[in-house]
Amino acid sequence: MQLNRRQMLKWMGATTSLALGQPALFARAATGTEIELEAAPVMHKLHHAPEAQASTLWGYDGQVTGPTLRFRQGEKVTIHFTNNLPEPTSIHWHGLRIANAMDGVSGLTQEPVQPGESFTYEFVAPDAGTYWYHAHHKSWEQVARGLYGGLIIDPAEGEILPETQDHLVIMDDWRLNETGRFDAASLGAPMDWSHDGRLGNWLTVNGESLPRFSLCKGASHLLRLVNASNSRIMEIDPERFGGKIISFDGQALPNAPTALGYKPLLLGPAQRVDILVEPQESFTLEELSREPFAFCFFDVTTPCENVAPFVPPRPNPLPVPAKANRFKFDLRMTGGAMGRLGDIVYQGEKMQRGDFQRTKQFWAFNNVANLAEEPLFTVKQGEAVELNVINETAFMHAMHVHGHHFLVEDRDGNGVEFDPLWRDTFLIGTQQSTQIAFVADNPGKWLFHCHMLEHAASGMNAWFQVE
Ligand code: C2O
Ligand code: CU
Predict the structure, then answer these.
(1) Model confidence over 140-172: pLDDT tens digits?
(2) Who's near 368: CB < 8 A, 6+ residues apart?
(3) Which atom of ligand 1 is nearest to 402's Cα?
(4) 5-156 and 169-301 share one CATH topology?
(5) Ligand (nearest to CA of 148)
(6) Could you tell me which of 38, 87, 110, 271 has the fewest CB atoms within 10 Å of its CB?
(7) pLDDT tens digits along 233-242
(8) Does the structure's ipTM exceed the value 0.85?
(9) Where is the Plastocyanin-like domain (predicted)?
(10) Cα–Cα dist 159/64, whole Å
(11) CATH for 327-466?
(12) What is the torsion angle, in degrees rounded to the nearest 10, for the CA atoms of residue 253, residue 234, residue 197 and residue 437?
Protein backbone atom coordinates (compact mmCIF):
# COMPACT_ATOMS: atom_id res chain seq x y z
CA MET A 1 0.00 0.00 0.00
CA GLN A 2 1.20 3.44 -0.80
CA LEU A 3 0.50 6.18 1.68
CA ASN A 4 0.31 9.80 0.80
CA ARG A 5 1.93 12.44 2.98
CA ARG A 6 -1.22 13.27 4.86
CA GLN A 7 -1.75 9.61 5.77
CA MET A 8 1.87 9.31 6.86
CA LEU A 9 1.42 12.25 9.17
CA LYS A 10 -1.78 10.89 10.63
CA TRP A 11 -0.17 7.52 11.19
CA MET A 12 2.76 9.08 12.93
CA GLY A 13 0.59 11.43 14.95
CA ALA A 14 3.08 14.06 13.95
CA THR A 15 2.70 17.48 12.52
CA THR A 16 5.63 18.87 10.64
CA SER A 17 5.41 22.24 12.30
CA LEU A 18 6.34 20.63 15.63
CA ALA A 19 9.99 20.51 16.46
CA LEU A 20 10.28 16.73 16.62
CA GLY A 21 13.65 16.19 15.09
CA GLN A 22 16.82 15.06 16.74
CA PRO A 23 20.10 16.94 16.35
CA ALA A 24 21.26 16.85 12.74
CA LEU A 25 23.72 14.09 12.05
CA PHE A 26 26.34 15.30 9.72
CA ALA A 27 28.11 13.09 7.31
CA ARG A 28 31.78 13.05 8.19
CA ALA A 29 34.02 14.96 5.87
CA ALA A 30 36.75 13.16 4.01
CA THR A 31 40.13 14.74 4.20
CA GLY A 32 43.13 14.40 1.97
CA THR A 33 43.29 13.71 -1.70
CA GLU A 34 43.38 9.94 -1.51
CA ILE A 35 40.42 8.23 0.08
CA GLU A 36 38.59 4.92 0.24
CA LEU A 37 34.89 4.60 -0.34
CA GLU A 38 32.74 1.53 0.08
CA ALA A 39 29.18 0.78 -1.02
CA ALA A 40 27.33 -1.75 1.13
CA PRO A 41 23.93 -2.46 2.68
CA VAL A 42 23.17 -0.46 5.81
CA MET A 43 20.34 -0.42 8.36
CA HIS A 44 18.93 3.05 8.80
CA LYS A 45 15.81 4.64 10.20
CA LEU A 46 14.15 7.09 7.83
CA HIS A 47 11.40 8.32 10.11
CA HIS A 48 11.93 9.76 13.58
CA ALA A 49 8.78 8.29 15.18
CA PRO A 50 9.70 5.68 17.82
CA GLU A 51 7.40 3.08 16.25
CA ALA A 52 8.95 3.48 12.79
CA GLN A 53 11.18 0.57 11.79
CA ALA A 54 14.68 0.73 10.35
CA SER A 55 15.11 -0.01 6.64
CA THR A 56 17.76 -2.00 4.86
CA LEU A 57 19.22 0.63 2.56
CA TRP A 58 22.36 0.85 0.47
CA GLY A 59 24.91 3.45 1.48
CA TYR A 60 28.48 4.66 1.13
CA ASP A 61 30.79 4.03 4.11
CA GLY A 62 27.91 2.68 6.18
CA GLN A 63 25.87 5.87 6.02
CA VAL A 64 22.79 7.24 4.34
CA THR A 65 23.53 9.99 3.17
CA GLY A 66 27.11 9.01 2.26
CA PRO A 67 30.13 10.92 3.58
CA THR A 68 30.59 14.44 2.29
CA LEU A 69 33.58 14.49 -0.03
CA ARG A 70 35.38 17.80 0.00
CA PHE A 71 38.28 18.61 -2.27
CA ARG A 72 40.02 21.62 -3.70
CA GLN A 73 39.61 22.96 -7.20
CA GLY A 74 42.60 21.82 -9.29
CA GLU A 75 43.79 19.15 -6.89
CA LYS A 76 44.27 15.56 -7.98
CA VAL A 77 41.86 13.26 -6.23
CA THR A 78 42.10 9.47 -5.94
CA ILE A 79 39.13 7.47 -4.72
CA HIS A 80 39.56 3.75 -4.16
CA PHE A 81 36.05 2.43 -4.44
CA THR A 82 34.95 -1.05 -3.30
CA ASN A 83 31.58 -2.57 -4.08
CA ASN A 84 30.15 -4.67 -1.26
CA LEU A 85 26.61 -4.54 -2.56
CA PRO A 86 24.81 -7.68 -3.77
CA GLU A 87 24.87 -6.29 -7.35
CA PRO A 88 27.17 -4.35 -9.72
CA THR A 89 27.42 -0.57 -9.43
CA SER A 90 29.43 2.51 -10.50
CA ILE A 91 29.76 6.10 -9.23
CA HIS A 92 29.09 9.31 -11.13
CA TRP A 93 30.47 12.68 -9.93
CA HIS A 94 27.51 14.79 -10.90
CA GLY A 95 28.41 18.16 -12.40
CA LEU A 96 32.18 17.73 -12.43
CA ARG A 97 33.87 18.37 -15.77
CA ILE A 98 36.36 15.52 -15.58
CA ALA A 99 37.94 12.96 -17.91
CA ASN A 100 35.34 10.79 -19.62
CA ALA A 101 36.80 7.51 -18.35
CA MET A 102 36.12 8.68 -14.77
CA ASP A 103 32.51 9.76 -15.37
CA GLY A 104 31.17 6.56 -13.85
CA VAL A 105 28.44 5.66 -16.35
CA SER A 106 28.25 1.88 -16.36
CA GLY A 107 27.98 0.47 -19.86
CA LEU A 108 29.22 3.70 -21.49
CA THR A 109 32.38 4.98 -19.80
CA GLN A 110 33.25 1.92 -17.71
CA GLU A 111 32.19 -1.62 -16.96
CA PRO A 112 30.15 -1.85 -13.78
CA VAL A 113 32.12 -2.74 -10.65
CA GLN A 114 31.11 -6.28 -9.67
CA PRO A 115 30.29 -7.27 -6.07
CA GLY A 116 33.51 -7.69 -4.11
CA GLU A 117 35.52 -5.76 -6.70
CA SER A 118 37.15 -2.35 -6.69
CA PHE A 119 37.67 0.54 -9.07
CA THR A 120 39.89 3.57 -8.66
CA TYR A 121 38.51 6.94 -9.70
CA GLU A 122 41.00 9.71 -10.29
CA PHE A 123 40.16 13.22 -11.33
CA VAL A 124 40.94 16.90 -11.10
CA ALA A 125 37.89 19.11 -10.56
CA PRO A 126 38.27 22.31 -12.59
CA ASP A 127 35.36 24.12 -10.94
CA ALA A 128 34.51 25.08 -7.37
CA GLY A 129 30.99 24.66 -6.05
CA THR A 130 28.34 22.31 -4.72
CA TYR A 131 28.05 18.97 -6.52
CA TRP A 132 27.07 15.44 -5.52
CA TYR A 133 27.97 11.88 -6.29
CA HIS A 134 25.63 8.96 -6.84
CA ALA A 135 25.37 5.47 -8.23
CA HIS A 136 25.09 5.33 -12.02
CA HIS A 137 24.14 1.72 -12.57
CA LYS A 138 20.41 1.00 -12.29
CA SER A 139 20.27 4.47 -10.77
CA TRP A 140 16.49 4.31 -10.44
CA GLU A 141 16.95 1.62 -7.80
CA GLN A 142 20.42 2.36 -6.38
CA VAL A 143 19.89 6.09 -5.80
CA ALA A 144 16.42 5.35 -4.38
CA ARG A 145 18.06 2.99 -1.86
CA GLY A 146 20.44 5.70 -0.67
CA LEU A 147 23.59 5.56 -2.80
CA TYR A 148 24.52 9.23 -2.93
CA GLY A 149 26.45 11.88 -1.03
CA GLY A 150 27.57 15.49 -1.20
CA LEU A 151 30.62 16.65 -3.09
CA ILE A 152 32.01 20.10 -2.33
CA ILE A 153 34.83 21.62 -4.32
CA ASP A 154 36.48 24.54 -2.53
CA PRO A 155 38.04 27.32 -4.60
CA ALA A 156 41.74 26.91 -5.37
CA GLU A 157 42.40 30.14 -3.54
CA GLY A 158 40.58 32.57 -1.33
CA GLU A 159 38.68 32.38 1.92
CA ILE A 160 35.98 29.86 2.64
CA LEU A 161 33.50 29.83 5.48
CA PRO A 162 34.30 27.65 8.50
CA GLU A 163 32.27 24.45 8.86
CA THR A 164 30.04 26.06 11.49
CA GLN A 165 28.80 28.46 8.80
CA ASP A 166 28.68 26.06 5.85
CA HIS A 167 25.84 23.54 5.71
CA LEU A 168 25.11 20.82 3.24
CA VAL A 169 21.37 20.17 2.96
CA ILE A 170 20.79 17.07 0.83
CA MET A 171 17.09 16.60 0.38
CA ASP A 172 15.48 13.30 -0.49
CA ASP A 173 11.98 12.03 -1.03
CA TRP A 174 11.36 8.48 0.20
CA ARG A 175 8.47 6.13 -0.27
CA LEU A 176 7.85 4.47 3.07
CA ASN A 177 5.38 1.69 3.77
CA GLU A 178 3.05 1.45 6.75
CA THR A 179 5.85 0.25 9.06
CA GLY A 180 7.94 3.31 8.25
CA ARG A 181 10.34 1.23 6.19
CA PHE A 182 11.64 1.92 2.71
CA ASP A 183 9.03 0.56 0.30
CA ALA A 184 11.15 -1.78 -1.78
CA ALA A 185 8.15 -3.71 -3.10
CA SER A 186 7.13 -0.84 -5.38
CA LEU A 187 10.56 -0.28 -6.95
CA GLY A 188 10.26 -0.38 -10.72
CA ALA A 189 6.47 0.06 -10.82
CA PRO A 190 5.49 0.66 -14.50
CA MET A 191 2.95 3.22 -13.28
CA ASP A 192 5.82 5.35 -11.91
CA TRP A 193 7.94 4.90 -15.00
CA SER A 194 5.23 6.02 -17.40
CA HIS A 195 4.05 8.92 -15.22
CA ASP A 196 6.07 11.30 -13.06
CA GLY A 197 8.59 8.82 -11.69
CA ARG A 198 8.90 7.34 -8.20
CA LEU A 199 7.48 9.94 -5.85
CA GLY A 200 7.67 9.37 -2.12
CA ASN A 201 5.68 10.27 0.96
CA TRP A 202 8.44 11.31 3.35
CA LEU A 203 11.28 13.84 3.16
CA THR A 204 14.70 13.68 4.73
CA VAL A 205 17.71 15.98 4.93
CA ASN A 206 21.11 14.28 5.04
CA GLY A 207 19.23 11.01 5.56
CA GLU A 208 17.52 12.24 8.75
CA SER A 209 13.91 12.97 9.43
CA LEU A 210 13.41 16.63 10.44
CA PRO A 211 16.97 17.37 11.59
CA ARG A 212 17.91 20.61 13.34
CA PHE A 213 20.80 22.86 12.42
CA SER A 214 22.08 25.58 14.68
CA LEU A 215 23.02 28.94 13.23
CA CYS A 216 24.58 32.03 14.78
CA LYS A 217 22.38 35.07 14.89
CA GLY A 218 23.29 37.59 12.21
CA ALA A 219 26.28 35.60 10.90
CA SER A 220 26.62 34.55 7.25
CA HIS A 221 25.63 30.93 6.69
CA LEU A 222 25.77 29.11 3.40
CA LEU A 223 23.04 26.51 2.84
CA ARG A 224 23.98 24.14 0.02
CA LEU A 225 20.74 22.55 -1.11
CA VAL A 226 20.91 19.40 -3.21
CA ASN A 227 17.87 17.54 -4.55
CA ALA A 228 18.85 13.86 -4.41
CA SER A 229 15.38 12.48 -5.00
CA ASN A 230 14.60 10.11 -7.86
CA SER A 231 11.86 12.25 -9.35
CA ARG A 232 10.44 14.86 -6.99
CA ILE A 233 10.64 18.50 -8.10
CA MET A 234 10.95 20.51 -4.90
CA GLU A 235 9.66 24.03 -4.48
CA ILE A 236 11.26 26.27 -1.91
CA ASP A 237 11.02 29.97 -1.12
CA PRO A 238 14.23 31.55 0.20
CA GLU A 239 12.40 34.88 0.66
CA ARG A 240 10.55 33.36 3.60
CA PHE A 241 13.77 33.36 5.59
CA GLY A 242 15.59 36.20 3.90
CA GLY A 243 17.82 33.91 1.84
CA LYS A 244 19.84 35.23 -1.10
CA ILE A 245 20.97 33.13 -4.02
CA ILE A 246 24.66 32.51 -4.55
CA SER A 247 24.73 29.81 -7.19
CA PHE A 248 22.82 27.24 -9.16
CA ASP A 249 24.36 23.83 -9.90
CA GLY A 250 27.65 25.02 -8.38
CA GLN A 251 28.02 28.07 -10.65
CA ALA A 252 27.99 31.45 -8.93
CA LEU A 253 25.62 34.07 -10.29
CA PRO A 254 27.55 37.11 -11.56
CA ASN A 255 25.72 39.39 -9.12
CA ALA A 256 25.69 37.00 -6.15
CA PRO A 257 24.39 37.25 -3.49
CA THR A 258 21.14 38.22 -5.11
CA ALA A 259 17.52 38.32 -4.06
CA LEU A 260 16.37 38.08 -7.70
CA GLY A 261 12.86 36.75 -7.72
CA TYR A 262 13.37 33.19 -8.87
CA LYS A 263 9.83 32.43 -7.87
CA PRO A 264 8.70 29.83 -7.46
CA LEU A 265 12.15 28.38 -6.97
CA LEU A 266 11.91 24.85 -8.32
CA LEU A 267 14.72 22.45 -7.66
CA GLY A 268 14.52 19.46 -9.99
CA PRO A 269 16.16 16.13 -9.27
CA ALA A 270 19.98 16.58 -9.24
CA GLN A 271 19.81 20.38 -9.20
CA ARG A 272 21.52 22.44 -6.51
CA VAL A 273 21.13 25.93 -5.17
CA ASP A 274 23.44 27.67 -2.68
CA ILE A 275 21.62 30.13 -0.45
CA LEU A 276 23.16 32.72 1.87
CA VAL A 277 21.30 33.55 5.09
CA GLU A 278 22.08 36.04 7.82
CA PRO A 279 19.34 34.93 10.18
CA GLN A 280 17.83 36.98 12.96
CA GLU A 281 15.39 34.29 14.03
CA SER A 282 14.83 30.55 13.73
CA PHE A 283 13.17 29.24 10.60
CA THR A 284 12.00 26.07 8.90
CA LEU A 285 12.92 24.96 5.40
CA GLU A 286 9.79 23.72 3.70
CA GLU A 287 8.76 22.03 0.50
CA LEU A 288 5.94 24.13 -0.92
CA SER A 289 4.72 22.44 -4.08
CA ARG A 290 1.67 21.18 -2.21
CA GLU A 291 0.77 21.78 1.42
CA PRO A 292 3.97 22.98 3.16
CA PHE A 293 6.06 20.06 4.38
CA ALA A 294 9.11 20.61 6.58
CA PHE A 295 12.56 19.42 5.54
CA CYS A 296 14.51 20.65 8.57
CA PHE A 297 14.76 23.33 11.21
CA PHE A 298 17.32 26.08 11.62
CA ASP A 299 17.64 27.17 15.24
CA VAL A 300 19.16 30.59 15.53
CA THR A 301 21.15 31.10 18.71
CA THR A 302 22.70 34.21 20.17
CA PRO A 303 25.44 35.88 18.13
CA CYS A 304 28.64 33.83 17.99
CA GLU A 305 32.19 35.03 18.40
CA ASN A 306 34.73 34.86 15.61
CA VAL A 307 32.36 34.48 12.70
CA ALA A 308 33.80 34.80 9.22
CA PRO A 309 32.42 37.17 6.59
CA PHE A 310 31.06 35.68 3.39
CA VAL A 311 33.17 36.33 0.31
CA PRO A 312 31.25 35.94 -2.98
CA PRO A 313 32.75 33.13 -5.08
CA ARG A 314 34.62 33.82 -8.30
CA PRO A 315 33.23 32.46 -11.53
CA ASN A 316 34.57 29.11 -12.68
CA PRO A 317 36.58 28.87 -15.92
CA LEU A 318 33.63 27.72 -18.07
CA PRO A 319 34.05 28.13 -21.83
CA VAL A 320 31.42 30.46 -23.31
CA PRO A 321 29.84 29.16 -26.53
CA ALA A 322 30.22 31.58 -29.46
CA LYS A 323 27.04 32.46 -31.33
CA ALA A 324 28.51 31.82 -34.76
CA ASN A 325 29.18 28.44 -36.34
CA ARG A 326 27.27 26.43 -33.85
CA PHE A 327 26.45 22.79 -34.25
CA LYS A 328 22.66 22.86 -33.84
CA PHE A 329 20.59 19.90 -32.83
CA ASP A 330 16.83 19.66 -32.34
CA LEU A 331 15.61 17.22 -29.76
CA ARG A 332 11.97 16.30 -29.39
CA MET A 333 10.86 14.60 -26.19
CA THR A 334 7.81 12.37 -26.55
CA GLY A 335 5.98 9.49 -24.93
CA GLY A 336 4.77 8.79 -21.42
CA ALA A 337 1.26 8.52 -20.10
CA MET A 338 -1.17 10.72 -22.03
CA GLY A 339 1.56 11.17 -24.64
CA ARG A 340 2.19 9.85 -28.13
CA LEU A 341 3.61 6.34 -27.93
CA GLY A 342 2.84 5.27 -31.50
CA ASP A 343 6.15 6.34 -33.10
CA ILE A 344 8.59 5.04 -30.51
CA VAL A 345 11.42 2.84 -31.74
CA TYR A 346 13.29 0.62 -29.28
CA GLN A 347 16.29 -1.53 -30.20
CA GLY A 348 15.64 -0.88 -33.88
CA GLU A 349 11.96 -1.86 -33.85
CA LYS A 350 8.87 0.24 -33.74
CA MET A 351 6.97 -0.68 -30.62
CA GLN A 352 3.45 -2.00 -30.82
CA ARG A 353 0.69 -1.92 -28.28
CA GLY A 354 1.55 -4.36 -25.50
CA ASP A 355 5.30 -3.93 -26.05
CA PHE A 356 5.36 -1.04 -23.62
CA GLN A 357 4.46 -3.09 -20.57
CA ARG A 358 6.99 -5.75 -21.58
CA THR A 359 9.94 -3.45 -22.39
CA LYS A 360 8.99 -0.71 -19.89
CA GLN A 361 10.13 1.81 -22.51
CA PHE A 362 7.69 4.69 -22.53
CA TRP A 363 9.73 7.76 -23.47
CA ALA A 364 11.80 8.83 -26.46
CA PHE A 365 14.19 11.44 -27.83
CA ASN A 366 13.42 12.02 -31.51
CA ASN A 367 11.27 8.88 -31.41
CA VAL A 368 14.01 6.58 -30.15
CA ALA A 369 13.83 5.08 -26.65
CA ASN A 370 17.15 4.51 -24.89
CA LEU A 371 19.56 5.22 -27.71
CA ALA A 372 22.44 3.01 -26.60
CA GLU A 373 24.31 1.72 -29.66
CA GLU A 374 25.00 4.98 -31.44
CA PRO A 375 25.41 8.62 -30.44
CA LEU A 376 22.63 11.17 -30.73
CA PHE A 377 25.20 13.33 -32.53
CA THR A 378 28.95 13.66 -32.91
CA VAL A 379 30.90 16.91 -32.67
CA LYS A 380 34.52 17.94 -32.82
CA GLN A 381 36.29 18.90 -29.63
CA GLY A 382 35.93 22.65 -29.11
CA GLU A 383 32.77 23.01 -31.19
CA ALA A 384 29.94 25.15 -29.82
CA VAL A 385 26.79 23.04 -29.50
CA GLU A 386 23.26 24.42 -29.41
CA LEU A 387 20.50 22.07 -28.32
CA ASN A 388 16.93 23.02 -28.99
CA VAL A 389 14.83 20.80 -26.80
CA ILE A 390 11.07 20.57 -27.02
CA ASN A 391 9.03 18.70 -24.47
CA GLU A 392 5.93 17.27 -26.15
CA THR A 393 5.04 15.08 -23.18
CA ALA A 394 2.47 15.73 -20.46
CA PHE A 395 5.17 15.89 -17.73
CA MET A 396 8.03 18.12 -16.62
CA HIS A 397 11.54 16.76 -16.96
CA ALA A 398 14.98 17.50 -15.48
CA MET A 399 17.50 17.20 -18.31
CA HIS A 400 21.14 16.56 -17.51
CA VAL A 401 24.20 16.86 -19.75
CA HIS A 402 27.23 14.93 -18.51
CA GLY A 403 30.70 16.45 -18.48
CA HIS A 404 29.68 19.99 -19.46
CA HIS A 405 27.95 23.01 -18.04
CA PHE A 406 25.70 24.85 -20.45
CA LEU A 407 23.95 28.20 -20.69
CA VAL A 408 20.16 28.20 -20.66
CA GLU A 409 19.64 30.79 -23.39
CA ASP A 410 16.00 30.71 -24.30
CA ARG A 411 12.56 29.46 -23.27
CA ASP A 412 9.78 29.28 -25.88
CA GLY A 413 11.47 31.89 -28.05
CA ASN A 414 11.06 34.56 -25.36
CA GLY A 415 14.63 34.71 -24.12
CA VAL A 416 15.22 34.18 -20.41
CA GLU A 417 14.10 36.31 -17.50
CA PHE A 418 17.54 36.92 -16.03
CA ASP A 419 20.99 36.50 -17.55
CA PRO A 420 21.44 33.08 -19.11
CA LEU A 421 22.26 30.73 -16.24
CA TRP A 422 25.00 28.13 -16.21
CA ARG A 423 23.58 24.78 -15.27
CA ASP A 424 24.24 21.07 -15.59
CA THR A 425 20.56 20.09 -15.25
CA PHE A 426 17.58 22.10 -16.49
CA LEU A 427 13.86 21.75 -15.92
CA ILE A 428 11.60 21.80 -18.92
CA GLY A 429 7.83 22.21 -18.62
CA THR A 430 5.22 20.42 -20.62
CA GLN A 431 4.94 21.78 -24.20
CA GLN A 432 7.89 24.05 -23.46
CA SER A 433 10.97 24.54 -25.62
CA THR A 434 14.37 25.36 -24.21
CA GLN A 435 17.61 26.31 -25.93
CA ILE A 436 20.88 25.49 -24.26
CA ALA A 437 24.44 25.96 -25.52
CA PHE A 438 27.88 24.81 -24.50
CA VAL A 439 31.37 24.24 -25.82
CA ALA A 440 32.02 20.53 -26.31
CA ASP A 441 35.56 20.81 -25.00
CA ASN A 442 35.93 17.41 -23.41
CA PRO A 443 36.43 14.35 -25.62
CA GLY A 444 34.47 11.19 -24.94
CA LYS A 445 31.00 9.71 -24.75
CA TRP A 446 28.71 11.91 -22.70
CA LEU A 447 25.30 10.98 -21.46
CA PHE A 448 22.25 13.19 -21.95
CA HIS A 449 19.26 12.03 -19.96
CA CYS A 450 16.31 12.91 -17.80
CA HIS A 451 17.34 12.94 -14.14
CA MET A 452 13.94 11.67 -13.15
CA LEU A 453 15.60 8.32 -12.87
CA GLU A 454 12.58 6.26 -13.88
CA HIS A 455 12.30 8.33 -17.07
CA ALA A 456 15.95 7.71 -17.88
CA ALA A 457 15.47 3.97 -17.36
CA SER A 458 12.36 3.93 -19.52
CA GLY A 459 13.67 5.70 -22.58
CA MET A 460 14.94 9.25 -21.89
CA ASN A 461 18.54 8.27 -22.15
CA ALA A 462 21.05 8.91 -24.95
CA TRP A 463 24.64 10.06 -25.43
CA PHE A 464 26.72 12.24 -27.70
CA GLN A 465 30.28 11.88 -28.86
CA VAL A 466 32.98 14.54 -28.68
CA GLU A 467 36.00 13.59 -30.77
CU1 C2O B 1 23.43 12.76 -11.81
CU2 C2O B 1 23.67 10.74 -15.34
O3 C2O B 1 23.56 11.72 -13.57
CU1 CU C 1 11.74 13.01 -17.25
Answers:
(1) 999 999 999 999 999 998 888 999 999 999 999
(2) 344, 345, 346, 462
(3) 2
(4) yes
(5) 1
(6) 87
(7) 999 999 999 9
(8) yes
(9) 49-156, 355-467
(10) 30
(11) 2.60.40.420
(12) -10
Instruction: Tell me what pLDDT residue 5 has.
Output: 58
Q: pLDDT at position 87, please?
A: 98
**Contact status, residue 363 vs residue 190, Cβ threshold 8 Å:** no
User: Which ligand has an atom closest to residue 452 CA?
Assistant: 2
Nearest CA residue ID for atom 1, ligand 1: 94
- Pick 169-301's CATH classification: 3.20.20.70, 3.10.450.50, 3.40.50.1000, 2.60.40.420: 2.60.40.420
Ligand 1, atom 3: closest residue by C-alpha:
94
Ligand 1, pocket residues at CB < 6 Å: 92, 94, 134, 136, 270, 400, 402, 447, 449, 451
Residue 25 has pLDDT above 70, yes or no: no
Q: How many CA atoms lie within 13 A of 109 on its CB side?
A: 27
Report the predicted TM-score, pTM, of the whole model to 2 decimal places: 0.94
Give the Å distance between the CA of 136 and the centre of ligand 1: 7
Q: Which residues surround ligand 2, an ion (CB under 5 A)?
A: 397, 450, 452, 455
At the topology level, CATH places domain 5-156 in: Immunoglobulin-like (2.60.40)
Q: What is the pLDDT of residues 29-54, one digit of tens each?
A: 444 589 999 999 999 999 999 999 99
Could you identify the atom of ligand 1 that is nearest to the CA of residue 134?
Answer: 1
Distances (CA, A) of 15 to 9, 36, 121, 315: 6, 40, 43, 42
Q: Quick one: pLDDT at residue 396?
A: 98
